[in-house]
Design goal:
Distance between the termini: 109 Å
Mean pLDDT: 85
Order of helices and strands: HHHHEEHHHHEHHHHHHHHHHEEEEHHHEE
Number of helices: 21
Radius of gyration: 27 Å
Shape: globular
Number of domains: 2
CATH topology of the largest domain: Cytochrome p450
Helix content: 40-55%
Strand content: 5-15%
Structural class: alpha+beta
Number of strands: 9
Low-confidence stretches: 305-315, 317-322, 324-332
């Protein structure tokens, strides 16, 4: 027995030592692997960081890991602010190079080069190059994310979606939502603190998009906790999965699915898919039409109408290209499935909810800061409506020149689309009047925020100055120095709708109420760096309001 005990003790010691040896050996190998990987990544990064220097492209020495947008990556400053700084530092160069983590990016500062890229040489820069896995996330099969022939075919199919005629049909739906604002504002009239105006504007745009894109009366103005409103807010919530997709855009589908790395929460995309599916079924079974965006998609699904290119383009190169992709579309049509319809409604919601609510918020904020401008806008609105017997119509929107100048100035100063246009170079491209080649696959940034705040193009770039958009001022400025909706074949097709939505919200608030700054608004406005939304303001934008009495 003593012998057996001794053997067992020896075996126990051996096992203990063996386990410790295996653990130490494994940890040593792991440590060496991590160190080797670190030095490999470091050496590759150092080598890639010499690219712009070797190519003769203007650049600023980057951080070895984070690149030129370190503070934005670490969320110590907003992406818009950091890109604005870089734009100014690269003066007077027409273009320059920056590094963002592992990616090389070309920044284009010259409006003439931008025009070439977006119009004449569009075939080189037709894709956004954003991370999208169409098989795992069908909701991303939308006009914004699609690339190549898939985008071309769908773009032509939707060409007639937002014509002036379509806008007139949808106008009553937008008008109804705008009228619903007044009872809500009356609840806050003459209160000492007023209300957080961004939330009200977001509820208004939610109702508009819900009505025009999904055919749903969401009642967000009356009920801020409505399901549709809450789902809309979740789209712009921070998700670490979204950060991973941006940092590593070319993940395989199995990896995205296995690790749940979808850009949007699956419950969110399933919700919008169900909304569209249920509404399409209801309309088809009951033969209901409303003349809205969803009706157009239903018509395309059922082949009741074939969209043809009727648009009149001022630019001959653009008109020629649109005709070419129209011919391709006829040869290779795209089937409008329920999933594809839901994807278009979803991107319509994303663009129409966040961007337009932000624009309406800052328009009201600037009018509250500039009472003389607010009064001039109010007088124009009231006199124009009274000249039409007191009835607001779609055609009257074109008879409000000063109000439209205020809108244009708002979306110059506070960029509607998040400060940049992004394009991916599809083939090696020689920058005009230079020897520089942009290599295939390289991302190209067009820094709208920088251009929109450049004193070369705007007399008072950091002030709210509607006179930037007088006919004379516009004629003296390069056309591509103002790009809130993009330009060329990939211009935002809902531009008319967005402007109508913002104007109608502003008209029905300004004609009935006087707005002033609330003491709860922190000046100057500070934009939060930790949100994916468009220009989120620390503490919110608070305004006081009181009924206007003629």
């Amino acid at each position: 027995r003593q012998f057996e005990a001794s053997v067992h003790e020896s075996l126990a010691i051996y096992k203990h030592v063996s386990v410790r040896f295996v653990i130490m050996h494994t940890l040593t190998i792991l440590f060496l692997f991590i160190v080797t990987l670190f030095f490999y990544v470091y050496s590759r990064l150092k080598k890639s960081r010499r690219y712009f220097r070797d190519a003769g492209i203007p650049y600023i020495e980057p951080h070895w890991l984070f690149g030129n947008l370190k503070d934005a990556v670490l969320m110590r400053s907003s992406f818009i602010v950091e890109l604005q700084k870089l734009y100014e530092q690269f003066e007077p160069h027409r273009f320059a190079g920056i590094y963002n983590l592992f990616n090389r990016i070309i920044i284009i500062r010259d409006p003439e080069i931008i025009k070439r890229m977006l119009i004449k040489d569009f075939s080189y820069f037709q894709d956004h190059g954003l991370p999208a896995s169409k098989n795992v996330e069908p909701i991303l099969n939308n006009l914004f994310n699609l690339e190549g022939d898939e985008w071309k075919n769908l773009r032509i199919k939707l060409t007639g979606t937002f014509t002036s005629g379509r806008m007139k049909i949808m106008f009553p739906l937008v008008k109804k939502c705008a009228r619903d604002i007044k009872p809500v504002l009356m609840q806050y009239a003459d209160t000492p603190e007023g209300l957080e105006i961004r939330d009200l504007c977001a509820r208004f745009t939610t109702d508009v998009i819900g009505s025009c894109a999904f055919g749903i009366d969401t009642h967000s103005l009356q009920d801020p906790k409505s399901e549709f409103r809450q789902m809309g807010k979740r789209i712009f919530e921070f998700r670490w999965q979204g950060v991973v997709r941006i940092v590593v855009p070319k993940l395989p589908d199995w990896c995205i699915k296995y690790f749940s790395l979808q850009t949007f929460d699956k419950k969110l995309s399933d919700y919008f898919l169900k909304c569209v599916k249920d509404m399409v079924k209801y309309r088809e079974e009951n033969n209901i039409t409303r003349g809205d965006f969803l009706d157009i998609l239903i018509g395309l699904k059922n082949h009741k109408e074939m969209e043809k290119l009727k648009d009149h383009h001022e630019d001959a190169d653009l008109a020629k290209f649109m005709s070419q992709i129209s011919d391709k579309c006829i040869k290779s049509d795209v089937e409008m499935t329920i999933e594809l319809m839901a994807a278009q409604c979803f991107i319509f919601f994303v663009g129409g909810f966040e961007g337009t609510s932000a624009a309406l918020t800052f328009l009201l904020f600037e009018l509250a800061q500039n009472p003389h401008i607010q009064e001039k806008v109010r007088e124009e609105i009231i006199s124009t409506i009274e000249s039409n017997g007191g009835e607001m119509t779609y055609d009257l929107l074109n008879k409000l020149p000063y109000t439209f100048m205020v809108l244009q100035e708002t979306i110059r100063k506070y960029d509607l689309n998040g400060s940049i246009l992004i394009r991916k170079c599809g083939e090696n491209y020689k920058i005009p009047d230079s020897d520089i080649i942009i290599e295939k696959g390289t991302s190209v940034f067009i820094p709208m925020n920088g251009i929109h705040h450049d004193k070369k193009y705007y007399e008072k770039p950091n002030e709210f100055y509607p006179e930037h958009f007088t006919k004379e001022a516009i004629s003296q400025r390069h056309h591509f120095a103002y790009l809130p909706f993009g330009e060329g074949p990939r211009v935002c097709i809902a531009e008319r709708f967005a402007k109508m939505q913002i104007l109608m919200g502003a008209i029905y608030m300004i004609k009935d109420f006087i707005f002033e700054l609330s003491p709860k608004t922190k000046l100057p406005l500070r934009f939060l760096p930790t949100s994916f939304g468009i220009l989120p303001v620390e503490g919110g934008v608070w305004l006081k309001c009181r009924p206007y009495k003629a």
